[in-house]
Each structure stands twice: as C-alpha cells, then as structure tokens.
Design a protein that fits this description.
This protein folds into 2 domains: 47 residues, no CATH class; 162 residues, 60s Ribosomal Protein L30, Chain: A (2-Layer Sandwich). It contains 9 helices and 5 strands. Helix 4 packs antiparallel against helix 7. The chain is globular. It starts with a helix and ends in an 18-residue tail after the last strand.
C-alpha cells in the first residue's frame, strides 16, 4: 500500500493533540503514542490535500528558497561519491532536474530477479548507501516509482511495478529513512525510456526511479506531488 495516508493520519492526530495544554508534562509522550498508533493502522492511503502537504513539510523541516540549490548540490555530491562504483557499472544513474529534484534510476537487472519484487541481496549495499544519504539530508520527500517493459499484460506489469517500488520503500524505511518522507507508486509500462521492440530498449525500461524532492519553505506541498517529468 502507498504511504501517503499514514502521513495524513499523523497530521490529523497532531492537530488534535496540539490543543492539549502546553504545560502537560506527558504531552510529548501522548503525541508520539497516538501518532504511532494511527500511522501503523492507516498505512497505504493517498494524501491529496495541499494544505496537509504544507503542514507536514513544515514538520519535516523546510529549506529557505535561497538555500535550495546549495542543499541539493551537497546532497548530489554525496550520492555521487557513495554510488560512484554503481554509476561506473551503469547500475545507477543520477540526474539533476530543472526544479532541483534529484532523479536516481536503479536498474532492475541488478536490483531484482526476473519477474520478482524481491530485492537481490547483492543490491543491499547500494540501498544502504542511498538510505544513509537520505537520512543525512532529511529535508526532502522521496518518491519511488517502479517501471516495467511491455512484456506481459498491462495489468500484471502495473502490479509488478508497484510491488518493486514498495519493496524499495520498505527497505529504505528499514534502514532508518522516516516513513513520512517515502512515497511509492508503480507506473507499469506506461512511461518507457526507450523502445520495447529491442532487448536493449526493454532493459532500459525495466527500472525503479527515486526522485528526491526538496521541501521548500512556503512551497512545501510541491514536494509531495508525484513527479511528472518528460523522459530524458
């Protein structure tokens, strides 16, 4: 399931508890307990309210507009440093989008077995490094998008792409990335990078993309919107 409603549920609870007496010595403990319960029980829904995105973005921590470029520069440099070997092997690609979003493409050939949503153990170190940088630069929302080639039925490919995106999201959460920052979705065969008429093209189309979007002060909701970029 998607992670957006678990975040919305947290917002509702926090908003309610914000009305508690400020001098209540147990206020923080109560808030943590209730939010944890709601998040655990409402996992998988979608957040579509811009106002909710603004509130959550502020809670995560927003970047002042003039500092966004520098913040994302440093994060990109860190990704390129820890994932240098994977880039050289063409297992990972790192791109900078015009809006300062970082797009990290993970090849399915090295991350998943054929027709499987189980991450290969050999790919764990790569995701560990990815998760480490995401933890360090935590003023971002992380959109994980699964893609397939056109082999098989459209419905099957859609489901497989969703399972693979969720698998990556769960792994990153397990490595300490805050679940409220993670969004997972599948787009099946609908957004190919190349032709599906050749083996090389199909290989490029089988991928998981990680979009790291900055939470910008005053524009927090934009970080929560699903990335829709033309193919590079």
């Amino acid at each position: 399931m998607s992670r957006r409603y678990r975040l919305l549920a947290s917002l509702v609870v926090v908003a309610c508890l914000a009305g508690c007496a400020a001098d209540d010595p147990h206020r923080r403990a109560k808030t943590g307990a209730v939010v944890g319960a709601v998040v655990g029980g409402v996992a998988g829904k979608q957040i579509g309210d811009d106002r909710a995105g603004t509130i959550v973005g502020a809670a995560i921590g927003a970047i002042a507009g003039g500092m966004v470029g520098n913040y994302m520069d440093r994060q990109q440099q860190e990704f390129e440093r820890v994932l240098r070997e994977e880039q050289q092997q063409h297992a990972v690609e790192i791109e900078r989008m015009k809006d300062d979003t970082l797009k990290i493409s993970l090849s399915n050939e090295v991350s998943f077995d054929f027709d499987s949503a189980r991450i290969k153990p050999s790919f764990y170190p790569t995701l560990n490094d990815l998760g480490g940088v995401l933890q360090k630069y935590d003023r971002t929302i992380v959109h994980i998008v699964g893609h397939t080639d056109s082999t098989g039925s459209e419905a099957y490919n859609q489901a497989l792409s969703e399972r693979r995106a969720e698998a990556v999201a769960r792994y990153l959460e397990g490595r300490g990335v805050d679940a409220s920052r993670l969004r997972a979705e599948g787009r099946g065969e609908s957004e190919p990078r190349d032709t599906n008429a050749t083996a090389a093209g199909r290989q490029l189309n089988r991928r998981v993309e990680v979009y790291v979007r900055p939470v910008v002060e005053g524009q927090e909701q934009q970080a929560f919107r699903p990335p829709r970029y033309p193919q590079q």
